[in-house]
Design goal:
The structure holds two protein chains of two kinds. Chain A is of the alpha/beta class. Chain A contains 13 helices and 13 strands. In chain B, helix 5 runs parallel beside helix 11 and helix 6 packs across helix 7. Classes of the chains: A alpha/beta, B alpha/beta.
């Protein structure tokens, strides 16, 4: 049998154990719940399996054969072959969580470097070795705020994705915390500061701000927002698109206490939305409250530099019901891809990438709004996503599809007030030819 | 003797300096970056060598046996990796028009049905990103179920003292009070204690079957009766289901909610700690609470459906770790029903074979005298008493022979525990070698063992030092 080397040794092994047949290994299962077979087809050969998957794969229209202008937090980015080469090293990808540091120095050092890179990008004191995704990082951040200041209300603006708000609700509901949603300013797309101010009080544990937010708009009044939060002694949680951090201030520079984000864009494929990479960083003073795995630098018995998992008494395998989080498996390999990706770019390349994404965002918005009937909805400065209002969003979407282009994200389903509004996204992957074709197709609609 | 690569590999930051001019000025000044990023600008050659060397200082299942108990470190077929990287799958966006992702939806739909057949459940959600997130989801479903019955006072979760650490942690996260009950002297659930502890305050009883000692809970039907008579739900932690594929199904045992770890039983790689996937299967009464979107098939087309007013909502962005789900789907297609059954048969055979040889050696003790399933736990207590050698020392010494240690000090009810799960992936030769090495270590000079390892990239790591003075990134150097 494939992948089962002992198929032929069963008899001699059973002899050694002193059993007659395989069945007696299962004699401890009550007879009335024993089953004889699984109602699944027999296994296929590797060649047949590839053929089957090819047939299924053909039913997809992936964005390598049909460009996408979808926004909504996920956009295609170029992944250097070197990243794929590194994460394909099976010493890395077939290893387990590095509980035994002496056999896992390679992965541990890479995760230490990941934590360093995330701390650097976000401007925070410490970062963990990853959580599941941006949404669950936000959930964990809200829980952490309440652990720190024992307050119960978490404030979040509606210019955060519906998925994230939905996940957040589930993360905080169990332990009895509440969410207050703050509307966005309909002119700028930024958080409505006046309403936020009215909605925070001495039971507000933390305030979330996404920068750039779900509409692609930069939250520019960060200093003012920070002051309001500080005056209220609440915690300031900032969500980031890491690609923007080459040109924008790090959240640490404007007073964030916790920084979260979706890190997939750092060297990981989109993979239909998962795998993903939850970024989580915070001030060093909160080190005992941070969720998830931490890798620390230490020495071995001979005084040589070594790495290991550390502060594990926060974690479920030690602290069980009193752990800071239930997380065990995280997104290690995605964090490795991110580490490789950022190190390949270096600070220069990273800043350049940020800049291209910003400029492409401006160019595409200008080009679209030069078409009659297409207008930018929010005045705020945007990064590489932006909201456009047109006459008939569904018609635009269908026509683009007909012309082999994945259009933007139609916002009406989540934001009824944004009728006929589309969230477009653009990155370094959209070359002039792709953009030209897109614009001329839009013009034709 | 085994020799691991030992490089004094510098940190990335030590390999080069950041040399930049002034920051790019593009944005309004209140959000414009002013400090340069401190990330070295290195050449691709340097970076490849750096990470390649790191990889060579890391042990994976492709390096050798990796018998971590409850972790099911089995071989990860290369074809699963290869297919998951095909651009027709990896380059699809979760918000694409449904007409352009029919292939993905077909895979998810069929995988849900395969998992239903394997577990005996009625429906599945593939959204949870890992086993622990599956547990949390399962407990939210439990809560939704009791709430829908206006049964609001159930605020306790009961679990045995052999349970995985994630069980109580997930229960706490879902807002429940955790009650741990001691196991019997046979290492199984104590029915008398369970009956005494369970009440109309109990929301759920969480159980792993076979449990973390590798023992099948033969009283499972009585357990199910006790739990359901009390009005509580019965939750199945599927971490150990590699032991019983095609032999018995949690659905038939009376479990209401089941999670599976696809990165264990269904062979997707663990990636040094993820990404994983922890789908949840449920019985009919819980179906309406499952996360959205749900997958439906109309004619030959697949759709996402959001119209489920009783759903708990979302637990992760989009539809779960699709790349992991795809690999598990490919694995099941490759193995087929018969292959999965043989998987469990050989996993259990391998475990019992090793157990027998180790018990016969009289160097290690086997607490609880039952037959074992896919894993077993032995104790180093005798070694500690006679020679001062602890389970940790044995674990470290194994590395000198090029073998990955088992799980140590778990479950907590066994002193000086070594928890061994060989999986079906190991040859008889590999099992014999592991057993013989364990026996040899027991006879070695205690000082040699207590100072091991020697052949790894670093000698024994000072983990206490790392806690005393936490250095978590290169900023702190």
């Amino acid at each position: 049998m494939k992948f089962i080397p002992n198929s032929g040794d069963k008899k001699s092994m059973l002899n050694k154990i002193g059993l007659e047949n395989i069945d007696s290994l299962f004699s401890d299962i009550p007879k009335n719940i024993r089953i004889k077979k699984l109602n699944l087809p027999d296994g296929l050969s590797q060649q047949q399996t590839e053929e089957k998957l090819h047939e299924i794969g053909k039913k997809n229209r992936s964005f390598d054969i049909m460009p996408t202008f979808l926004g909504g937090g996920i956009k295609p980015h170029y992944i250097p072959a070197a990243v794929k080469s590194i994460i394909s090293r099976s010493e890395f990808y077939t290893s387990y969580t590095p509980y035994q540091p002496e056999a896992s120095q390679g992965f541990l050092q890479a995760m230490f470097e990941y934590q360093s890179i995330i701390a650097e990008l976000t401007g925070m004191g410490i970062a963990n070795a990853s959580l599941y995704d941006g949404a669950t990082s936000l959930g964990e951040a809200a829980l952490m705020c309440s652990r720190i200041n024992k307050r119960n209300n978490f404030v979040i603006p509606t210019n955060t994705s519906w998925d994230k708000r939905c996940v957040l609700r589930n993360y905080i509901s169990g332990v009895g915390l509440n969410i207050k949603e703050i509307p966005y300013n309909s002119e700028t797309g930024e958080i409505d500061i006046d309403i936020m101010k009215k909605n925070i009080d001495d039971n507000t544990s933390g305030v979330y701000l996404e920068n750039p937010n779900f509409f692609g708009v930069f939250e520019e009044k960060v200093e003012e927002i920070k002051k309001i939060i500080r005056d209220n002694q609440s915690l300031f949680v900032v969500g980031v698109d890491p690609i923007s951090l080459g040109i924008t201030k790090s959240p640490g520079d404007y007073g964030a206490d916790i920084v979260v984000g979706e890190g997939r864009s750092l060297g990981n494929p989109i993979d239909f939305g998962g795998s993903s990479l939850g970024i989580f960083a915070c001030k060093k003073e909160f080190i005992r409250q941070i969720p998830g795995r931490l890798i620390g630098l230490t020495k071995d018995k001979d005084g040589k530099r070594a790495f290991c998992m550390t502060l594990q008494t926060r974690e479920q395998h030690i602290r069980r019901g009193k752990a800071t989080s239930n997380i065990c498996t995280n997104e290690g390999l995605c964090a490795l891809a991110a580490t490789t990706y950022v190190s390949l770019l270096g600070s220069k390349g990273f800043e350049h990438l940020s800049k291209i994404n910003f400029l492409k965002g401006q160019q595409l918005a200008e080009k679209i709004t030069s078409i009659k009937g297409f207008n930018k909805v929010f005045k705020g400065t945007h990064f590489n996503e932006f909201v456009i209002k047109c006459n008939d969003a569904y018609k635009v979407h269908k026509n683009l599809l007909k012309n082999n282009i994945h259009g933007g994200l139609i916002l009406e389903r989540i934001y009824p007030e944004l009728k006929n509004c589309i969230l477009f996204g653009v990155t370094e992957m959209h070359n002039d030819k792709i953009i030209k074709n897109f614009i001329s197709t839009l013009r034709g609609i | 003797m085994y020799r691991s690569a030992k490089f004094d590999e510098p940190l990335l930051i030590e390999l080069g300096k950041t040399k930049n001019d002034k920051p790019l000025k593009l944005l309004p000044s209140n959000i414009q970056r002013k400090k340069r990023l401190n990330i070295p600008n290195l050449d691709e050659t340097q970076i490849i060598r750096h990470f390649l060397r790191l990889s060579q200082m890391n042990y994976g299942i492709d390096t050798g046996i990796y018998p971590l108990g409850s972790c099911t470190m089995k071989y990860n077929p290369k074809i699963c990796e290869a297919i998951s990287r095909w651009s027709c799958f990896s380059m699809t966006h979760p918000s694409q028009d449904e007409s352009t992702i029919q292939g993905n939806l077909q895979i998810l739909y069929e995988l849900e049905h395969m998992l239903c057949e394997i577990t005996g459940m009625v429906s599945f959600t593939l959204q949870p990103a890992a086993g622990a997130q599956g547990e949390f989801t399962g407990l939210l479903l439990t809560k939704a179920y009791h709430d829908s019955n206006r049964d609001f006072d159930r605020n306790e979760v009961i679990l045995p003292d052999t349970s995985h650490g994630t069980n109580p942690a997930s229960a706490s996260l879902a807002g429940y009070k955790v009650i741990e009950i001691p196991s019997t002297d046979q290492g199984t659930v104590d029915l008398v204690t369970l009956e005494k502890t369970i009440s109309n305050k109990t929301a759920c009883f969480m159980l792993t079957n076979p449990n973390t000692l590798g023992i099948f809970e033969s009283d499972i039907l009585e357990i199910s009766k006790i739990v359901h008579n009390a009005g509580a739900t019965l939750y199945y932690d599927g971490a150990n289901i590699n032991a019983i594929l095609g032999k018995a199904r949690p659905g038939d045992m009376g479990f209401d909610i089941v999670h599976l770890n696809l990165h264990k039983t269904f062979s997707t790689p663990h990636g040094g700690g993820g990404p994983g996937s922890g789908p949840i299967g449920v019985k009919k009464e819980f179906d309406r609470f499952l996360p959205i979107p749900r997958l439906v098939k109309k004619g030959n087309n697949y759709h996402f459906s959001y119209e489920h007013k009783d759903s708990i909502g979302k637990i992760k962005e989009f539809y779960g770790n699709f790349s992991v789900l795809l690999k598990a789907y490919v694995y099941i297609v490759l193995m087929g029903g018969n292959g999965l059954i043989e998987t469990s048969e050989v996993a259990v055979l391998n475990s019992n074979y090793m157990k027998k040889k180790l018990v016969d050696s009289r160097k290690y003790d086997l607490p609880y005298k039952n037959i074992r399933k896919h894993e077993f736990v032995i104790s180093c207590e005798r070694l500690l008493k006679d020679k001062g050698i602890r389970a940790l020392d044995v674990a470290k010494r194994l590395m000198d022979y090029g073998l990955h240690p088992p799980t140590v000090y778990f479950p907590l009810i066994v002193k000086e525990a070594l928890m061994i799960e060989p999986t079906e992936s190991e040859s008889k030769r590999s099992l014999d070698n592991y057993v013989e090495t364990l026996i040899r270590i027991a006879d070695e000079d205690p000082n040699l063992v207590k100072n091991a390892p020697y052949n790894t990239p670093v000698s024994r790591v000072d983990e206490a030092g790392a806690i005393k003075n936490p250095i978590l990134n290169w900023k702190s150097l």
